[in-house]
Amino acid sequence: MEELKIQIELDPVNDKIIQFPGNTRKIKSDISNPMALVVGTDSNFRTVSTRELDRMLEALGDDGLAYSLCDDYMMVFSSKAIVYTEFGNYLVGSAVFMKTGRDSRIKELSDLDIKAIRTLFERSLVKLSCASVSFKAFPLEHDYGEAA
Questions:
Q1: Strand 64-69, strand 126-130: pairing
Q2: DSSP letters of the chain?
Q3: pTM over 0.85
Q4: Residue 41 and residue 18: Cα distance in Å, rounded?
Q5: What are the boundaries of each domain within the chain?
């Protein structure tokens, strides 16, 4: 029977699992708390794992923008989701929220964190309209400039 083999030589480029047992690549995790929360301007939300958070941040790439939501939380969203108006800039869509510590590391979210993020986000939503259609948007205090 094959066993799990891990190579660690303090070389982040090459250190990795070099052999999985049998035909499986499934790794069990004892982490039960989510690492991030995705909230939409339509008030829908869902939690995401570390793996999904990594995938989202990688997919956002250069289009991803970070915004601080109080001292404890950071939100990341696509620059393509910004609506520019004469009165300010707004996020319409969804953002992924993470809890950050004093050391700038991402921390697991507790149920209280999830409630706090949703409350902070939803209290900030404003109503906008276009062609007689109303929708909610999150006001962005920082001016990122007009999209090209």
A1: unpaired
A2: ----EEE-SS-TTT-EEEE-STT---------S-SEEEEETTS-EEEE-HHHHHHHHHHHGGGEEEEEETTTEEEEEEGGGEEEETTEEEE-SEEEEEEE-TTS-EEPPPHHHHHHHHHHHHHH-EEEEETTEEEEEEEESS------
A3: no
A4: 43
A5: 36-140
Tokens of 53: 């958070």
> Alpha carbon 5 to chain centroid distance?
32
Mind listing the pLDDT tens digit of every residue in the chain (148 residues)?
A: 567 777 788 676 787 777 777 666 666 654 556 889 999 999 899 999 988 899 999 999 998 998 887 778 999 999 999 999 888 999 999 999 999 877 778 899 999 999 999 999 999 999 998 888 889 999 997 444 443 3
- Compute the distance between CA of residue 92 and CA of residue 125 in angstroms, rounded to an integer: 10
- Whose tokens are 């793996």? That residue is 51
* Side chain identity, residue 133: V
